[in-house]
Automatic annotation (TrEMBL):
Listed InterPro entries: E3_UB_ligase_RBR (IPR031127), IBR_dom (IPR002867), TRIAD_supradom (IPR044066)
Catalytic activity: [E2 ubiquitin-conjugating enzyme]-S-ubiquitinyl-L-cysteine + [acceptor protein]-L-lysine = [E2 ubiquitin-conjugating enzyme]-L-cysteine + [acceptor protein]-N(6)-ubiquitinyl-L-lysine
The organism of origin for this protein: Emericellopsis atlantica
Domain RING-type as annotated: residue spans: 1-218
Name of the protein described by the UniProt record: RBR-type E3 ubiquitin transferase
Lineage: Eukaryota, Fungi, Dikarya, Ascomycota, Pezizomycotina
Length: 257
């Protein structure tokens, strides 16, 4: 710390000041000289308290930016050399200075990001739950449909026999043991004979005619007044067979079974 002569501007040495200054002035000069030397170092921080002129070395540096005054206990920011910015990190303080209107603290940004992530997680959980419920419903419907199909198949296997010629399933509801396939009126003696029809998954018609041949294309409920229609239908097969042995009908009243 340099002190010049007020008349000739000659810089006084430390010894000159000590020789000519009073004891009180010299002690003050000595303190200021020490502070001037120490204050030029990066780690020296002056207290930012309003009524404190103290300063000290802060070995923590920017990694520990809060400087606690040894004299008045006031807190100073090592990075900004200002009173410590409460609730703000040094990065927050810099962003506050750059854009005060749109400033949000790091903690606020983290909370906002956390809320956003929670909302994303909630929507994802709802989507997964919805897909699981839809999959369960689809499995339930599929199982129900499969059970119905198995029940239908069991009923078909129990109550029907396939035509040996066209493999159409036929259910016999009564009448004679000869089953014709497809429909063709042989004579007009009346008794119940079941014939094929397109009622999925098997064919079934109960008629009051004598010997009929089942038709494998159209679903027709036949009666005595439909004889002319039956004889005019186009057919692929006119196979007559025995219900008991499924063999070709030989024209006898009864087969050997």
């Amino acid at each position: 710390m340099d002190i010049a002569c007020p008349e000739c501007d000659t810089v006084l040495s430390f010894e000159d000041v000590k020789e000519y200054a009073t004891q009180l002035d010299f002690e003050r000069y000595e303190l200021l000289a020490v502070l001037a030397v120490v204050g030029s170092t990066e780690q020296f921080v002056w207290c930012s308290g309003p009524d404190c002129n103290s300063g000290q070395l802060h070995v923590g540096g920017a990694e520990q930016p809060i400087v606690l005054c040894n004299l008045c206990r006031h807190r100073t920011c090592f990075v900004h050399r200002t009173p410590w910015h409460e609730d703000l990190t040094c990065d927050d303080y810099d962003r506050l200075q750059q854009d005060p209107a749109n400033f949000r603290t790091r903690a606020e940004l983290e909370r906002a990001a956390e809320q956003e992530q929670l909302e994303v997680d909630r929507q994802e959980a709802e989507r997964i739950d919805r897909e699981q419920r839809e999959a369960q419903e689809m499995r339930r419907i599929a199982l129900k449909r499969r059970a119905q199909e198995q029940q239908n198949e069991a009923t078909i296997n129990k109550t029907t026999k396939p035509c040996p010629k066209c493999a159409s399933n036929i259910e016999k509801k009564g009448g004679w043991y000869v089953l014709p396939c497809p429909p063709l009126v042989i004579n007009m003696l009346t008794f119940a004979v079941p014939i094929c029809s397109v009622i999925s998954p098997f064919f079934r018609i109960v008629s009051t005619m004598r010997v009929l041949q089942c038709h494998c294309v159209n679903h027709i409920v036949m009666g005595l007044k439909q004889v002319s229609m039956l004889t005019s239908l186009g057919t692929r097969y006119r196979h007559r067979f025995c219900w008991t042995c499924l063999g070709p009908w030989n024209g006898r009243i009864k087969c050997g079974h």
